[in-house]
């Protein structure tokens, strides 16, 4: 029998092998971790779906795996993944089917067919996910094998989830429609040139013609970051609002309460205090905590405040999400922020812990720099950039000059749904929250 890569989660179809935890000849049990897979900035532990003895291992570290791809074979243990093709069906042979050809230029969809945008994930069956044997005739299994299709990805329509020819045909039709939709997205003129919205073909440049060079492969996490940054920068009309805040009082409060927090096993940071101020501002200006549903042309307002915190790691930028920031105490936030930051740096953060954010903060204060233009993390509509706090001579309200701690603030927002006036008001409110931080919010 074969152990295959299971479905990784919503929108995740592949990953790169980071480590393999078993060797040929090892005995494994169902649920035992067999490898680690890097996917979408996170490292995920993959368990074995069966019990048995490891036979031939079909992968190696660095390989890119897709859902359904064989990891290794097992010499014993129950499984539904491998059924002899020659086994006889009690129902007799099923009606043969013809595999539809993908010709985007000639495909027509009937008026009563299912919507083109329907997700293929709707076809995923529940039998194998529940650990039950997959029901399908040997003839159909053989046909699916020849087509390179994993029957476990198809929902069976018969009793007990049995997969029949009509299920496979419907699945192939959807694949064909998805391919047709993808081909139509690349518009070509009558002269054969690409539409202006289509990215140009990427060509490799031989830099060695001008001198000595060295090369380093782009790590999977860096590839993901690069793709996301391009998508976000191109698809969202960014505007960045710059401001400054005097956080001298906030720093004094932090210094005063540090011992009390440490006694509770927490480390209170400037970032923790700023998180609370940002959450209050987001509650006053909910449009900055919203998202744009482009398909429905609707603005989605969220009743929760989940703030992503960009963490600088040796593998790239990771953004774990702190949930319900507005409802948690500073003590809770201090502990949670430290835990998530450590997990991100140790590459133990999960994909789920980086999803669901409604606003993001990128704090470069510990490194240096002043104002910058952060890129919005879609589907969010705004991101706050914080620079390094510096001491500066400031003219006070009573006309005296004093040394104050000034924090550079950069607010990037989606100009499709947020106007400059609203952004300015948000920025003014945020500065006031920073400068007039209430001690009652920090009290344990």
Termini separation: 58 Å
CATH topology of the largest domain: Chloramphenicol Acetyltransferase
Largest sheet: 7 strands, mixed
How many E-type strands?
19
Given the structure, what is the number of helices?
7
Work out the oligomeric state of the chains in this entry.
Answer: single chain
Unreliable residue stretches:
77-133, 184-197
Beta-sheet strand percentage?
15-25%
Broad structural category? alpha+beta
Calculate the mean pLDDT score and round it: 80
What radius of gyration results from the CA coordinates?
27 Å
Query: Percentage of helical residues?
Result: 10-25%
Outline type: elongated
Structure write-up:
The protein is α+β, with helices and mostly antiparallel strands and 444 residues long. The protein contains seven helices and 19 strands. Strands 9, 12, 15, 16, 17, 18 and 19 form a seven-stranded mixed sheet that branches. It has a four-stranded antiparallel sheet with strand order 1-8-6-3, with no helix packed on it. A four-stranded antiparallel sheet has the order 5-4-2-7, with no helix packed on it. Residues 77-133 and 184-197 have low confidence and may be disordered.
Topology:
Elements: E1 2-4, E2 14-20, E3 27-28, E4 33-39, E5 42-47, E6 52-57, E7 64-66, E8 70-74, H1 138-147, H2 165-184, H3 220-235, E9 238-246, H4 248-263, H5 270-284, E10 291-293, E11 298-300, E12 307-309, E13 311-313, E14 316-318, E15 321-322, H6 330-345, E16 359-363, E17 382-386, E18 390-395, E19 401-414, H7 420-435
Parallel strand pairs: 12-16, 16-17
Antiparallel strand pairs: 1-8, 2-4, 2-7, 3-6, 4-5, 6-8, 9-19, 10-11, 12-15, 13-14, 17-19, 18-19
Helix pairs in contact: 5-6, 5-7
């Amino acid at each position: 029998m074969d152990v295959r890569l299971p479905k990784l989660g919503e929108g995740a179809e592949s990953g790169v092998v980071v480590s393999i935890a078993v060797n040929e000849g090892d005995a494994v049990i169902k649920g035992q971790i067999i490898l680690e897979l890097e996917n979408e900035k996170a490292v995920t532990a993959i368990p074995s779906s069966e019990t048995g003895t490891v036979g031939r291992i079909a992968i190696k570290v660095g390989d890119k795996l897709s859902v359904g791809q064989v990891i290794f074979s097992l010499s014993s243990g129950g499984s539904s993944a491998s059924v002899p093709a020659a086994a006889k069906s009690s129902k007799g042979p099923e009606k043969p089917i013809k595999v539809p050809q993908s010709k985007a230029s000639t495909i027509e969809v009937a008026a009563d067919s299912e919507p083109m945008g329907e997700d293929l994930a709707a076809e995923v069956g529940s039998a194998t996910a529940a650990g039950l044997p997959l029901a399908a005739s040997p003839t159909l299994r053989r046909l699916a094998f020849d087509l390179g299709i994993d029957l476990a990805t198809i929902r069976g329509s018969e009793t007990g989830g049995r997969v029949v020819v009509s299920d496979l045909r419907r699945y192939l039709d959807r694949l064909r429609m998805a391919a047709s939709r993808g081909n139509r997205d690349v518009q070509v003129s009558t002269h054969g040139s690409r539409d202006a919205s289509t990215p140009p073909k990427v060509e490799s440049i031989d830099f060695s013609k001008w001198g000595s060079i060295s090369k380093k492969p782009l790590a999977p996490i860096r590839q993901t970051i690069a793709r996301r940054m391009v998508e976000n920068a191109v698809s969202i009309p960014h505007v960045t609002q710059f401001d400054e805040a005097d956080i001298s009082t906030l720093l004094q409060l932090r210094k005063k309460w540090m011992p009390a927090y440490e006694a509770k096993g927490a480390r209170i940071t400037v970032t923790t205090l700023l998180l609370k101020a940002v959450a209050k501002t987001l509650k006053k200006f909910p449009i900055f905590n919203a998202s744009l549903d482009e398909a429905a042309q609707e603005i989605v307002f969220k009743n929760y405040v989940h703030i992503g915190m960009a963490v600088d790691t040796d593998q790239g930028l990771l953004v774990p999400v702190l949930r319900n920031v507005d409802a948690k105490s500073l003590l809770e936030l201090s502990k949670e922020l430290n835990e998530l930051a450590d997990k991100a740096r140790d590459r133990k953060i999960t994909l789920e812990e980086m999803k669901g954010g409604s606003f993001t903060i990128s704090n470069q204060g510990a490194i240096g720099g002043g104002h910058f233009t952060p890129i919005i993390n879609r589907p969010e509509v705004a991101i706050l950039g914080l620079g390094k706090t510096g001491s500066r001579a400031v003219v006070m309200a009573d006309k005296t000059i004093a040394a104050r701690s000034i924090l550079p603030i950069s607010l990037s927002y989606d100009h499709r749904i947020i106007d400059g006036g609203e952004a300015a008001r948000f920025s003014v409110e945020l500065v006031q929250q920073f400068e007039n931080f209430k001690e009652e919010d920090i009290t344990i």
